[in-house]
Amino acid sequence: MLSTIADYTRLTTDLGKSMTQVATQPDVSRDTDYFLSHIGNVKTIDDFLKDYRLYSYAMKAYGLSDMTYAKAFMRKVLTEGVSDKDAFANKLSDTRYREFATAFNFAANGDQATSTSAATTGTATQYVTQTMEQNAGDQNEGLRLALYFTRKASTITNAYQILADKALTQVVQTAMGWSSMISSSDIDAQAKMITDKIDLTDFQDPTKVTKFVQRFAAMWDATQVQSDTSTNPALVLIAGASTSASLDTTMLTTLQNIRFNR
Predict the structure, then answer these.
(1) Which keywords accompany this UniProt record (predicted)?
(2) Which one is the CATH code of 1-139: 1.10.3700.10, 3.10.25.10, 3.40.50.740, 3.40.309.10?
(3) Domain-by-domain residue ranges, the chain?
(4) CA-based torsion, 180, 185, 191, 197: positive or negative
(5) Which long-range contacts (CB under 8 A, 24 or more apart) does 53-60 make?
(6) For the chain, N or C: smaller number of CB within 10 Å?
(7) CATH number for the segment(s) 141-225
């Protein structure tokens, strides 16, 4: 039985303990030790990009592992920094690049860029968080999405930030019961749909964020059960029409207990 809500509650009830368990895993501990003991030796962007172990660690910490290969792109992100509103990172819709350039702010701090708390312990914390979410996703993609949304929610100030992030978009669409097909519609229409139905200021309230994530988790689990049932001939033959009716009743009951109020 799927239990995204139960797993989410277990991990977030004592987040510090959950983070410590991940941080002390041998591979995570080893990579973090290397990063913290060597990052201070990096004085230039070239130094940073040449040490693959440091660079890839930092990229994973900010959720950019899939762009580790794009060194020319990342060089531009780091070279221009974030101080100028027209800087490359500030023009990108994906805020992860701005976060990365802020943490490793060579443009503003020069050879001291890697000695800040953001570049050192801040990045290490981000790495552990990313690893925890990745591990969760290996078991349950819905749990990874729930954890990610919880972490990013307070940074959301407009609908376009949601739409620029595939994971955030998936959480919102699932929680609201919207088909993923709406992603092919006009971007402004999608943004209006979000702001018409969701008060984004609620995402500054941890209690309301938790309620929204619980709604997502309930919808996610219900959708996965439906999918598994509909694609398994044996289950279809055994369960028949009563399975769908029972599932609908269960889902509605759960959602009634996790109302997301504007």
Answers:
(1) Cell projection, Cilium, Flagellum
(2) 1.10.3700.10
(3) 1-139, 141-225
(4) negative
(5) 57/31, 57/32, 57/123, 57/127, 58/100, 58/103, 58/104, 58/123, 59/100, 60/127, 60/130, 60/131
(6) N
(7) 1.10.3700.10
